[in-house]
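Field reference: sequence -> structure
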Amino acid sequence: MTTGIGLLSGGLDSMLAVRVLQDQGITVHGVSYETPFFSAKKGRKVSEMLGISFSALNITHNHLPLVKKPKYGYGKNMNPCIDCHTLMLRTAGRLMKEIGADFIFTGEVLGQRPKSQTRQALELVANESGYKEYIIRPLSAQLLPITPMEEKGLIDRTKLYAFEGRSRKPQIKLAEKYGLTEWESPAGGCLLTYSGFSSKLRELLEHSPNANERDMNLLKIGRHFRLPHGDKLIVGRNETENTLLESHASAHDILLFPPDINGPTAVLINPADETDILLASNILLRYCKNIDQARVTLTWPSREISKTIFSSPLSARESAQYLVSL
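Structure field:
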């Protein structure tokens, strides 16, 4: 039985690619990836809808280096699409070998995206992945060179498609044929494509070139401040974020909260300067209501000790100068 490994984005195109191959009696195993910047939730949902087996693979260890220094550069924001797609295909290729599948496929459409889905980009990614001979794009296959899988008769090329460009009409028509009525937007799943998140990431890497997975996850939480001596302060915006900040705090951080009044929790990342600690407490109180002075508790998880100091809130204007702009 012929088996293909399908990269599932959660969008319509990857769903159609699955159905097109299933029409030929091919067994499909879906795969999606997880990093601090995107999750496998949409892929998992699609696999359940389509009734196929599924793997969610965390590729953070290999993904972070290429986010920091991509071989083929960034898209509009901090999205290294060429390098990222290469890694995804390479990882899918290894999975293919592990489970004894025959090929890899994606829902990519030739010319749909101006940087990552040109003819040259598709060929480049395939070459760089190390699995070029195993990759097929069913929705545009008739516009691309014939693959070994087609030559061997594992896949019938005449039953594949020649979709091209940004129009969604051919996909919508094919979705009607397969009775598909629910799918996610074709874009928006990756935080690296957002300008606000990319600004925070760029600022982080300027100050912390060796930023790790935890640092990336913290970018998704709270208000971020860069203090005069380079320390990073993150202030929670709601109860959920307060809890997340507490859970993400490391042994070298300081947790701050006002013990006597309702207010946010904050984390000061590995502080190196005493004056930044005092300033952090002033910024924290800026987000408490109607106070002139209050106690702030500082907790050092590494030493399992706390102390309480009196602080006064900064004004909105004063605190804004330290806010990492979006």
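Note: The chain has two domains: 3-189, 221-320.
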